[in-house]
Amino acid sequence: MSDKYDVIVIGAGPGGYVAAIKAAQLGLKTACVESWTSSDGKQQVLGGTCLNIGCIPSKALLEISHKYEEAQHGYADQGIELKDLNINIGKMMERKDGIVQQLTGGIAGLFKTNGVTAIHGHGKLLANRQVEVTDKDGNSKVYEAENVILASGSKPIEIPPAPFDGDHIVDSEGALEFDQVPKRLGVIGAGVIGLELGSVWARLGSEVTVLEAMDSFLPAVDQQVAKDALKHFKKQGLDIKLGTRMTKAEVKRKLVYVDYEDGKDKEQVKFDKLIVAVGRRPNTENLLAADAGVNLDERGFIYVDDNCKTDVPGVWAVGDVVRGPMLAHKASEEGIMVAERIAGHKPQVNYDCIPNVIYTSPEVAWVGKTEEQLKSEGEAYKVGTFPFAANGRAMAANSTGGMVKIIADEKTDRILGFHVVGPQASEIVAQGVIAMEFGSSAEDLALTCFAHPTLSESVHEAALGVDGGAIHKANRRKKK
Questions:
Q1: Is the Cβ–Cβ distance between 164 and 276 less than 8 Å?
Q2: 447 φ, ψ to 5°?
Q3: Whether the predicted pLDDT of 480 surpasses 60
Q4: Quick one: 18 and 119 in the same domain?
Q5: Which of 11, 88, 251, 391 has its CA 20 to 30 A from that of 371?
Q6: Range list of H helices, 215-260
Q7: How many structural domains does the chain have?
Q8: CATH classification at residue 230
Q9: pLDDT tens digits for 81-131?
């Protein structure tokens, strides 16, 4: 087989493997390079961070821990009585690992079905669109390509005051591998990853303290929604300390001693385990040869234009290594766009319609602009909200926390933001994404018939509420 390809993708995460499959479907001779190796050192592992140590395993643990917590605290009120309820951590981890193996194995099958050549080793871009692949034994081989797609992903940021030791001080991967429930768990960072992982272990019995340096909670989220979410998290027992800067973490006698400042005092607290979740950085180490010609921006991301082109003709980059949110679905959409563009088509990613989700309980999800953004931009807008507490399906499901919030343009009524905190927010937000993708007005949703009883009726009511016409809640009186 020739070592020249139409497309070589470096990285087999959600951006890379999707780009490779789409390119092959479009008739391009495609290879995908991935260095991830199975624990026995024998097999290539596809799927990247998301499938192996990120999105998928964390959601498996979130789902299991949510069911456990509900059985513990929510079933009795519904007439379901249980005795001697226990959590088997080993079995839970087996379940998580089984899901991961099934999905990563599925990608290998999709590569074969679509004719993608999987190359095992570390990929490095050389000059003239050549890719050097080095295997685990140090042997290198150079491949040529008409187009190269860089999709090497990201990795957790390690901070000097709390270096990872793989046991007591861990990153997000380590937090998915605990073999028992820590009695006291510390989390540095109240972002998406910190809240999700903290939630898992809090539900299973840990006393969880979250230290967040920012003064505001979830600053990227609409603050009405964020404050509602914070209220629920605190009620669940998450001790979230805002405006708190950690200065030192030290392991002594199998405990982690954490020093922090809260603007007034200096404090010390001890934990059995400490999760550091302060963000991720692009994985570009040893990815680019000095003469490759690809430029990085001031934060270390690969510079690309709106269509994911780098400064080198025929070289593209997608996902966590480029600007924008570090989201698996954003990476996949970019991968598809790039493959289509290589094949001569002209699609674009609508970056205004990329949903964000925090898979806590209640879930938090949003797309578009927040009230705070619109205020700062001086845009005139109107708002409709509806609480799940007034939704019959939410009541039946014993899950009434949260609300749907729709923000529309004051003059045109076009939906500018769609925000949900509550049950199934990750699914409900898709309705907002579709509406915004088609340029819908709030009235369009208000005139749509929603099935009863469903959680989605709260979307209908929020849309009606934008112009003060909600049926199942009191509306604000219109100013005369």
A1: yes
A2: -90, 0
A3: no
A4: yes
A5: 391
A6: 223-235
A7: 3
A8: 3.50.50.60
A9: 999 999 999 999 999 999 999 999 999 999 999 999 999 999 999 999 999
**Measured distance CA(395)–CA(427) in Å, rounded:** 18
Check: CB of residue 408 under 8 Å from CB of residue 416. Answer: yes
63 — phi, psi (to 5°)? -65, -45
Length of the chain: 480
Would you say 152 and 296 are in contact if contact means Cβ atoms under 8 Å apart?
no
| 53 and 101 together in one domain | yes
Two tokens, residue 377: 């931009």
Contact between 175 and 275 under an 8 Å Cβ cutoff? The reply is yes
Instruction: Evaluate whether residue 77 is within a structural domain.
Output: yes
Residue type, 86: N
- Among candidate residues 278, 305, 334, the one where a domain is terminated: 278
Label the pairing between strands 315-317 and 140-150. parallel
Question: Which of 85, 69, 56 has its CA nearest to residue 399?
Answer: 69
What six digits make up the tokens of 36?
């991830």
Round to whole Å and give the CA distance between 200 and 210: 13
Q: Would residue 472 show up in a list of annotated catalytic residues for this protein?
A: no
Residue 174 has pLDDT above 60, yes or no: yes
259 with 241, same domain: the answer is yes
Region 22-27 average pLDDT:
98
| pLDDT for 1 beyond 80 | no
Query: What does residue 142 show for φ and ψ, rounded to 5 degrees?
Result: -105, 135
Assigned domain for 356 exists: no
CATH of the domain at 449: 3.30.390.30
Which of 331, 351, 371 represents a domain boundary (last residue)?
351
Full-model pTM: 0.96
* Cα–Cα distance list, 380 to 368, 371, 410 (Å): 15, 10, 5
Please tell me the distance from the alpha carbon of residue 307 to that of residue 300, in angstroms, as a whole number: 19
At 412, list the tokens: 């045109």
d(CA 359, CA 398): 18
- Mean per-residue pLDDT for 285-302? 95
pLDDT for residue 254 is more than 90: yes
* Mean pLDDT, all residues of the chain: 96
- Count of CB atoms situated within 10 Å of the CB of 439: 10
Burial of 343 per CB tally in 10 Å (0-12, 13-18, 19+): middle
Maximum CA extent, the chain:
78
Nearest to 456 by CA among 467, 466, 445: 445
Same domain, 339 and 296: yes
User: Are 223 and 303 contained in the same domain?
Assistant: no
With a cut of 60, say whether residue 68 has pLDDT above it.
yes
Residue 85: what are its φ and ψ, rounded to 5°?
Answer: -75, 130
